[in-house]
Amino acid sequence: QRFEGAHETMNTTALIHEVYLKFDRAGNLVANDRSHFLLIASRAMRQLLIGYARRRKRQKRGGGEPIVTFGPDAERDALVEQQGARLVDINRALSRLESMDERLGKVAELLLFGGLTYEEAAEVLDVGRATVSRDWRVARALLTKELEA
Question: Which positions ≥6 away from 57 have C-beta within 8 Å?
Answer without folding.
Answer: 84, 85, 88
